């Protein structure tokens, strides 16, 4: 039996990961700080039968005390989303990067060399694009002037022509465009350095837009699906930013949990650092997702507002081929099926 420590294991994604690992016969322990961005109430004493240890991943002695007998660490703990403003920057860096550094240092001291990292599609910045004239291109970050003028689509940096969105794969350059994204890139670099120095195994799972039951209720740190769901529950129409045509890959949280189970198995077979898109492979626009959710919940139709958040990207849709080929993971839950469940599922208070 493999003993797995799941950091952030009482959170939205982490709790599903814990349940899936337990269902597959692993011995699981949960480490969770109960950060107020994800938890408005007290931590549970157990998740899916796994004991919860109330520990801040930045606390070296406390983390060290949790690692005895552990074979694999699944590192889910992180502050997520765009946050409120730059006042959040120190907390993002502290939770996400200092916390990861402390965990890696203590894992090395304990002789634990297997890690699954919850990374994110935000490391790519904009997704992949093609210009009819110049082929594959990387558009610069969108400006406030363009966004305020309703010019949402990035243009070719060489000729300013319209671009076609394409599937991004794991070999795409990393180009973080907000604070959260920068901290996730730093996590990837830290874990890669750790793997080289220790001879360990890291499987970095780049989650795309995760949704499903148990998402945190409407907060500045919630995903867009939870924000829309909270609006509908309050009788308000979902407010869709820009023109609603931003393309994303929405992947159900239970599929993400299954990817973590596959990744835990993979860490036992190899060394080095490996990244995977964890995505459904069936992209949709944010406007389509909002409309599907409103229909499923019998709520008010979405309103497209033209508002924007500087730091958001336009299109990020993924190729999940590597995860299927190397991890044996394929997302099973369609957006229609997942949204039908999510429309009536409870959110975290």
Descriptive tags:
single chain; 349 residues; alpha/beta; globular; 10 helices; 4-stranded mixed sheet; 8-stranded mixed sheet
Structure description:
With 349 residues, the protein is of the alpha/beta class. It is 34% helix and 20% strand. The strands form five sheets. An eight-stranded mixed sheet has the order 3-4-2-1-5-6-10-15, sandwiched between helices.
Strand order of the largest sheet: 3-4-2-1-5-6-10-15
> What distance separates the N and C termini?
35 Å
How would you characterize the largest beta sheet?
A: 8 strands, mixed
**Helix amount:** 25-40%
Structural class: alpha/beta
Q: Point out poorly predicted stretches.
A: none
SS element count, helices: 10
Q: What number is the mean pLDDT?
A: 94
Q: Gyration radius, to the nearest Å? A: 20 Å
Content of β-strand:
15-25%
Overall geometric form: globular
Kindly state the number of beta strands: 18
N-to-C SSE string, H for helix and E for strand: EHEEEHEHEEEHEHEEHEEEHEEHEEHH
């Amino acid at each position: 039996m493999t003993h797995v420590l799941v950091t952030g294991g009482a959170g939205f994604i982490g709790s599903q990961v814990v349940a899936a690992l337990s269902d597959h016969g692993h011995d699981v322990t949960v480490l969770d700080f109960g950060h107020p961005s994800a938890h408005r109430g007290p931590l549970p004493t157990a998740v899916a039968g796994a004991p919860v240890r109330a520990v801040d991943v930045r606390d070296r002695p406390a983390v060290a005390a949790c690692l005895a007998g552990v074979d694999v660490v699944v590192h889910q703990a992180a502050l997520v989303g765009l946050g409120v403003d730059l006042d959040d920057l120190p907390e993002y860096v502290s939770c996400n990067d200092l916390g990861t550094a402390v965990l890696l240092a203590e894992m090395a001291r304990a002789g634990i060399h297997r890690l699954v990292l919850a990374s994110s599609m935000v490391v790519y910045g904009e997704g992949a694009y093609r210009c009819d004239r110049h082929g594959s291109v990387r558009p610069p970050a969108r400006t406030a002037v363009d966004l305020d003028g309703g010019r949402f689509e990035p243009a070719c940096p060489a000729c300013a022509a319209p671009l076609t969105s394409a599937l991004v794969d794991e070999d795409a350059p990393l180009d973080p465009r907000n604070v959260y994204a920068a901290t996730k890139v730093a996590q990837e670099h830290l874990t890669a350095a750790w793997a080289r120095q220790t001879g360990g195994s890291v499987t970095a799972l780049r989650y795309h837009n995760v949704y499903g039951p148990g998402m945190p209720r409407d907060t500045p740190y919630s995903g867009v699906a939870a924000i829309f769901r909270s609006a509908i529950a309050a009788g308000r129409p979902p407010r869709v930013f820009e023109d609603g045509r931003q393309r994303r890959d929405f992947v159900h949280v239970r599929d993400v949990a299954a990817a973590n189970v596959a990744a835990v198995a993979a860490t036992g077979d190899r060394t080095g650092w490996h990244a995977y898109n964890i995505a459904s492979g069936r992209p949709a626009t944010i406007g389509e997702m909002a409309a599907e959710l409103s229909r499923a919940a019998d709520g008010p139709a979405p309103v497209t507002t033209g508002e924007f958040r500087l730091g958001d990207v336009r299109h990020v849709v993924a190729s999940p081929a590597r995860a299927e080929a190397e991890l044996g993971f394929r997302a099973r839950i369609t957006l229609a099926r997942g949204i039908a469940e999510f429309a009536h599922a409870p959110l975290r208070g």
